[in-house]
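Human:
Take a look at this sequence-structure pair and walk me through the C-alpha cells.
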Amino acid sequence: MTSRKPLIAGNWKMHKTGPEAVESSRQLVKLTAAVDQVDVMIAPPFTALAQVAEVLRGTRIMLAAQNMHWETRGAFTGEISSEMLISAGCTHVILGHSERRQFFGETDQTVNLKLKAALAAGLRPVVCIGESESEREEGKTFSVLDKQVQNGLKGLLSDDLKELILAYEPVWAIGTGKTASSQQAQEVHAYLRGQLAETYGRAIADKVRILYGGSVKPSNVAELMAMDDVDGALVGGASLDPETFSKLVHYQN
C-alpha cells in the first residue's frame, strides 16, 4: 500500500467572479471539513485568489494558481509572477495545462522555466502532461509523455522532485466527456513513475504524486483512485459545483 496521500484538486479555469468564488469556497470548506485522509486543493482565477485565500485560512484546503510567468518581475503585460501568487495566498501553481499549450503557445521549454521559477520561489508545482487523440491512435502516447517529462523537468535535481506533483491529462479526455479507463490511467501512471525512477531513483519516484485529469466525476473517481499509481485527480468541470466536487473528495465513503 502506498504512503502517498491522495490529492483531489479542482481547476476552475475561466469561471467564477470574486464573489462567486468566495461563495463556492465557503460551501466547500463546510462540505469537506471532516476530511483528513485526502488533500484538497482548488485553483480559482487570478482575480479571486486573494479573496478565496481569506476563506481558506485555517482550513485544510490548499490554494493554487492556474499559471504563472517564469520571471519575478518586468515588462510582461498581462502576466503574473510567483511573488504575486504567494502574496495572494497561493501555495501551489498549475503549469503546462493542455489548454495553455493548445491556445497560448506553452511548450515543454516554457514549462521548464516556470517549473524552476516556482520551485525557487517556494511554490509547489503541478506539472500537466498528456497526449492528443491522434497521438494515442498512432501509438505515440509513451514517446510523447517521455518527451514532455524529460524536457519539462530538465535540469531538476532529485531534491526538487519532493515538491513536484505530476498530472497526467490525456488531451482527448479534457472537457469531452471521454475518460481514460482505470486500466489505461494505471498503465500510463506506472510508466511515468518508472521513467522518474530511471532518472531520479525509485525512492524519489515512489514519493511523487501523479494525478489523473480528464472528465473525472463522482461516477468514475473511486475506480480511478483504486489504481496503485493513481494518487489523485485534477478536476475541471466537476470542480465548479461544491456539492459535486465534495463527492469526489469523499470518494472513499
Summary: The chain is about 40% helix and 15% strand. The chain has a mean pLDDT of 95.
